[in-house]
Amino acid sequence: MPLHVELVSPEEAVWSGEASMVIGRTVGGGDIAWMTGHAPFLGALDTCVIRVQLIDNTIEKIAVKGGFIEVSNDSVKILSDQAEKPEHVDPDRARVDLQWAEEELRKLQAQGDGAGGAALAEAEEAVRWHKLRLDAAGHGAPAAGH
Fold first, then answer.
1. Calpha distance 142→146 (Å, rounded)
2. What's 3-84's CATH class?
3. Mind giving me the DSSP string for 17-67?
4. Phi, psi of 44, rounded to the nearest 5 degrees
5. Which of 15, 25, 85, 99 has a CA that sits 20 to 30 A from residue 59's CA?
6. Contact predicate 13/6, CB 8 Å
7. Share of the chain above pLDDT 70, in %
8. Are the CB atoms for 16 and 7 separated by under 8 Å?
9. Is residue 145 pLDDT above 70, yes or no?
């Protein structure tokens, strides 16, 4: 019996279908795979690439920017703050976004202690997100959180 998987963001239902396995990264817990018969699970997702292994063994990749995952009764529900399928990533735009985020991060790092901790964390997360988007779309080197 396959898993029924639903991945939604505030903007849309991003992906829905049957799968044999879902792999994601939880906050502070590392990568985890969920398969048919998995014990009930509720956790916070890190910014990562969700990999959905379909019944035919092909892999769907979806970049997610945090959120939550609930697994129960062979159903996987992922609620993400932001999610993007590879075919929706404009690689040129994503590279521009990444360059901008990296520049912002460099500026904040150069300020040293003068940079606010929250601003620095936000800039680091933006760099990570844009790298993950490119990775999910096959246009970049695998990034942390892959």
1. 6
2. mainly beta
3. EEESEEEEEETTTEEEEEETTPPPEEEEEPSEEEEEE-TTS-EEEEEE-SE
4. -90, 135
5. 99
6. yes
7. 94
8. yes
9. no
- Give the number of other Cβ atoms within 10 Å of residue 28's Cβ: 8
**One-letter amino acid identity for 75?**
S
Hey, what amino acid is at 45? L
Cα-based distances in Å from 95 to 10, 99, 146: 24, 6, 18
Q: Cα separation of 142 and 37, whole Å?
A: 30
Cβ neighbours of residue 98 closer than 8 Å, sequence gap 6 or more: 127, 130, 131, 134
Residue pair 62/89 in contact (Cβ under 8 Å)? The answer is no
How far does CA 107 lie from the centroid of its chain? 26
- pLDDT computed for residue 18 by the predictor: 97
Burial string for 55-73 (b: 16+ CB within 10 Å, else e) reads: eeeeebbbbbbbbebebee
Tell me the HSE value of 53 on the side-chain side, using a 13 A CA sphere.
Answer: 11
CA distance readout (Å), 126 to 7, 49, 66, 94, 119:
21, 15, 12, 11, 11
Q: What is the mean pLDDT of the chain?
A: 91
SS3 123: helix
